[in-house]
Amino acid sequence: MKYEIKSEESYNPANNITVLTGEQIIALIFLVLFLLVGIFFAILPWGLASNSASLSLQVKLVTSGLGLLCVALVAAVIKSGLNETVIDRNNQMVLFRKRFSGTVTRRISCSNIKDVEIHQSKDSDGDAIYQVKFRLNDGDLVPLHRYVTSSKTTALYDRDRIKFLLYNPYQKFPGKDNTP
Predict the structure, then answer these.
(1) Which single residue of 7, 73, 89, 142 could bond 169 by disulfide (Cβ 3.0 to 4.6 Å)?
(2) Pick the residue with more confidence: 82 or 122?
(3) pLDDT tens by residue, 138-163
(4) β-strands 113-122, 83-88: how paired?
(5) DSSP-derived secondary structure letter, 155
(6) How far does Cα 84 stand from its chain's mean position?
């Protein structure tokens, strides 16, 4: 899993941010596909189908209703947004926010972060899983993101990159991404 360091100009409090992590963009592909299917089913019974004249009103309403439900579900997911973690360089903050809306769900001052650690646990099969977490000055642990990885290489790369970017926010991480 590779992460690109990118700037984003749409975030108002500080136009100078670096994305640390983000949920997989493949979810966006499924959202677009689901949206197209929803639109197709919403308008299909009202004239696109070759047999639309022979369909009863109830069938048309149910089919259109299912299509509109798909569209509503896509809208709800987009509204809730996919999570991402960014460094706001201007304000020296780590922000946990929603990708689409930009809604900030948590702020942590960079000076309040003591360390970036990898925590290992076991999944239901007994295999090792890893999660990158911030250790705050007060001892609290804050997960970087909600998902875990089974690859120690990925966790090490994420930890090293994030540590580097916390202390050198205007530089590009020099490490090589060897994640699987």
Answers:
(1) 89
(2) 122
(3) 989 998 877 788 888 888 888 888 88
(4) unpaired
(5) H
(6) 5
